[in-house]
Amino acid sequence: MSLSVDLEKDLGSFRLRAAFEAKDETLALLGASGCGKSLTLRCIAGIEKPDRGRIVVDGITLFDSEKGVNLTPQQRRTGLMFQNDALFPNMTVLQNIRAGARRERDALRREQGVAEVMESFGLTELAGRYPAQLSGGQQQRVALARILVSGPRILLLDEPFSALDSHLRFRLEQEVRQVLHRFGRTVVLVSHDRDEVFRMSDSIVIMDDGQIQTAGSRDDVFRDPRTRSGAVLTGCKNISRVCRLDGARVRALDWGITLELREKLTDEKYLGIRMHDVRPGDGENAFWARVTEEIENPFSFTVMLRPEEAEEKSTPIGWEMEKDTWRRLRADRVKISLPPESILRLRE
Description:
By secondary structure, the protein is an alpha+beta fold. Helix content is 26%, strand content 33%. It is built from ten helices and 21 strands. A six-stranded mixed β-sheet has the order 7-8-9-3-10-11, with helices on both faces. Strands 2-1-4-5-6 form a five-stranded antiparallel β-sheet, with helices on one face.
C-alpha cells in the first residue's frame, strides 16, 4: 500500500499546503492545535474538498483537481477514527461492529470477519453491552474494530487517545500498535503528543500554521527537527537565538555564551539542546553556571542554570537528570558542557 498527498486549501485567514508520501507504515502528523493536521486528514477521507491537488492511495486516485476526480468518502474506503468516534447508542457492541461490515455481501464471510475482529480486540465477552455500559477505553476499541471490519484501504486516526487518562491511553496504545502491525497497510496518525508519536509512528511530518516544516523517519526527525517549531514539538526546551562569529564559533544570544559547533552556520537562526543532553563537568563548550531553580519531578530533577558569564536577564538552561545524579552533584554552582554533536541547528 502507498499514500501520496499533495493538496492546498484556502480558508481565508488560514491556508493549508500539505505534500507527503507514506508506504506500509504508520505516519504521524505532529503539530499544535489548529496547524492543519485534522483538516489534512478530512481531505484524505473526502469529508473536506481541497481547492487544488491530488490524493492517491495504492494507485487509486481519490482526488485530482485537474482531472475533476473527487471520490465520495464511501468510494475512498478510508477508515477515519476521531478522538470521540461516537458509537450508535441504541446498538450493542456486536451490532455496532456489524454495521461496519455492511459492505461485505456474503453473510458467512461478514459474520466471520465480525467474530475475528471482536476476538482480536477482546470484545467477545462485551458483545451484548451497549455503549453507555462501556468504559472510555472499551468504546475506543469498539470504534476501531468497527472501522477495521469494513476493510479500509488506509486507516486515519485523529487523536484517538486524547480523551483518555494517561494509564488507559498507554494500555490502549499497546493494543492499537498490535492491531496496526496486523493491519499492515498505511496508517496516518494525527497527534500533538510527541511521546505518543514517538511510540506509535515509523515516520513523522511536522506541521505548523498549515505548512510542513520537517518530514522523515521518526528517529531522524527527533535527532534533527531542523526548525524551531519542530524542536519545540519534539520536546526541546532549551532554545536560543544565535549569531555567527568566526569559523564555527557562534554566540547563543539568549543564553549569553559562546559555543563552538562542528560546522559553520548557514541559514540557521536558533540553536537548541535537549535537557537530557547537557553534560556535567569538563568537555567541549564547558562553562560554570549558577543554579537559579531546582525542580523535582516524579523520577528526575530539572535544574535551571544561568552561565556565570551571562547577564542576569539571560535565559537559564534546563538540565534534566536522574535524582541520584543531582543528589550527588548538588551545589549552588556547577560546571556543565554542551556537546557540539548534541546541539540542534534550527531554521525559523
